[in-house]
UniProtKB/TrEMBL annotation:
<dbReference type="GO" id="GO:0005737">
    <property type="term" value="C:cytoplasm"/>
</dbReference>
<dbReference type="GO" id="GO:0042182">
    <property type="term" value="P:ketone catabolic process"/>
</dbReference>
<dbReference type="GO" id="GO:0006098">
    <property type="term" value="P:pentose-phosphate shunt"/>
</dbReference>
<dbReference type="InterPro" id="IPR004731">
    <property type="entry name" value="Transaldolase_3B/F6P_aldolase"/>
</dbReference>
<dbReference type="InterPro" id="IPR018225">
    <property type="entry name" value="Transaldolase_AS"/>
</dbReference>
<dbReference type="GO" id="GO:0016832">
    <property type="term" value="F:aldehyde-lyase activity"/>
</dbReference>
<keyword id="KW-0963">Cytoplasm</keyword>
<dbReference type="InterPro" id="IPR033919">
    <property type="entry name" value="TSA/FSA_arc/bac"/>
</dbReference>
<feature type="active site" description="Schiff-base intermediate with substrate">
    <location>
        <position position="87"/>
    </location>
</feature>
<keyword id="KW-0808">Transferase</keyword>
<dbReference type="InterPro" id="IPR001585">
    <property type="entry name" value="TAL/FSA"/>
</dbReference>
<protein>
    <recommendedName>
        <fullName>Probable transaldolase</fullName>
        <ecNumber>2.2.1.2</ecNumber>
    </recommendedName>
</protein>
<keyword id="KW-0570">Pentose shunt</keyword>
<dbReference type="InterPro" id="IPR013785">
    <property type="entry name" value="Aldolase_TIM"/>
</dbReference>
<dbReference type="InterPro" id="IPR022999">
    <property type="entry name" value="Transaldolase_3B"/>
</dbReference>
<dbReference type="GO" id="GO:0005975">
    <property type="term" value="P:carbohydrate metabolic process"/>
</dbReference>
<comment type="function">
    <text>Transaldolase is important for the balance of metabolites in the pentose-phosphate pathway.</text>
</comment>
């Protein structure tokens, strides 16, 4: 399972990278705005800065919603750095653009996916990644994890190569549940990754080992 961090915050990206388990980064316009990154040039520069910190894929989202605009923006993003994956919304022109990018060998992440049907369409169009937003489904009392298992079943039935990128992860249990269900990738905040580290028995056990060592030395 690949671990992506879902942020545009360079310090947090560095921290996750230093932990040694980071496989990539996802961003979206809201995450960029949260860091105060505005204006096309600043946004493009920020993507390059992120690519220079991590070794893996960096999702960069298009703003356009029409086919020509998505293609123009996507090609500009893909040209920025070899690690860039073009993030395209699950809309009619987005699906057309996914197919276009796939035919050109440009890697894509189909975002804002909330149903198995949308995920099937993204795979048919040749998306590299599909991003089901499980946290946002949970927010409206719908089982986000169930969507991950539906997509896993469909993709396995037909051996689609599109990778399931479980997005909108909110906490550590989401990460573990997605791993059980066979999501290829998870993207979440730093806290969801660091939460995997923690167990009180680890802390208690280590404290005892160190105390016993001190007694004998
Ligand atoms: C990542 O690709 C998504 O944009 C992100 O996970 C959405 O997360 P949110 O629902 O917490 O905003």
């Amino acid at each position: 399972m690949k671990f992506f961090i879902d942020t545009a915050n360079l310090d947090q990206i560095r921290e996750a990278q230093e932990l040694g388990v980071l496989d990539g980064v996802t961003t979206n316009p809201s995450l960029m705005a949260k860091e105060g990154i505005t204006g096309r040039n600043n946004i493009l520069k920020h993507y390059v800065d992120i690519c220079n910190i991590v070794d893996g894929d960096v999702s960069a989202e298009v703003i356009a919603t029409d086919f020509k605009g998505i293609v123009r923006e996507g090609e500009e993003l893909a040209d920025l750095h070899e690690q860039i994956v073009v993030k395209v919304p699950m809309i009619r022109d987005g699906v057309k653009a996914l197919k276009y990018f796939s035919d050109k060998g440009i890697r894509t992440n189909c975002t804002l996916v909330f149903s198995a049907g949308q995920a099937l369409l993204a795979a048919k169009a040749g998306a590299t990644y599909v991003s089901p937003f499980l946290g946002r489904l949970d927010d409206i009392s719908t089982d986000g994890l169930n969507l991950i298992s539906e997509i896993r079943l469909i993709y396995d039935n037909y051996e689609f190569e599109t990778q399931i990128l479980a997005a909108s992860i909110r906490h550590t249990m989401h990460v573990i549940d997605c791993a059980k269900l066979g999501a290829d990738v998870m993207t979440g905040p730093l806290s969801s990754i660091e939460g995997l580290l923690k167990h009180p028995l680890t802390d208690i056990g280590l404290e005892k080992f160190l105390a016993d060592y001190k007694k004998g030395n």
